[in-house]
Design goal:
This protein has about 80 residues and is of the alpha/beta class. It is built from 3 helices and 5 strands; from the N terminus they run H-E-H-E-E-E-H-E. It has helices at about 1-10, 20-25, 60-65; strands at about 15, 30-35, 40-45, 50-55, 70-75. A 5-stranded mixed sheet has the order 1-4-3-2-5.
Length: about 80
C-alpha cells in the first residue's frame, strides 16, 4: 500500500508556471517549498501540491523569506525527496 500511496501523491501534483509560482508566493498562498537545482516542489497553504521550474534569481529567496515561506534547498546530485 505504500507504493500505491506514493503513486497517488505523485498524481496529485499540479504543474504551474514560474510566474504563477511567484504570484502565489507574493499573495501569501505558499506554505513550503523544496528546491533542487531549478526544480521546485511545494505545498500551498490549502494543501495543494505543486511543482515548477524557477529561474536563477537571488531575489526569489528574499521574496520567499518576506512571505514567511518555509524552504529548503538541495544540490541536484542529492535528489532524495523530503516529502
Amino acid at each position: 500500500t505504500l507504493l500505491y500511496a506514493l503513486t497517488d501523491l505523485t498524481r496529485n501534483i499540479q504543474s504551474i508556471t514560474y510566474s504563477s509560482f511567484l504570484d502565489k508566493v507574493e499573495q501569501g498562498m505558499v506554505k513550503r517549498v523544496h528546491v533542487v537545482g531549478q526544480e521546485v516542489e511545494g505545498i500551498l497553504k490549502d494543501g495543494t501540491r505543486f511543482e515548477t521550474t524557477i529561474g536563477n534569481n537571488p531575489q526569489d529567496w528574499q521574496v520567499l523569506r518576506a512571505q514567511g515561506v518555509e524552504f529548503s534547498v538541495a544540490s541536484p546530485s542529492n535528489q532524495l525527496s523530503i516529502w
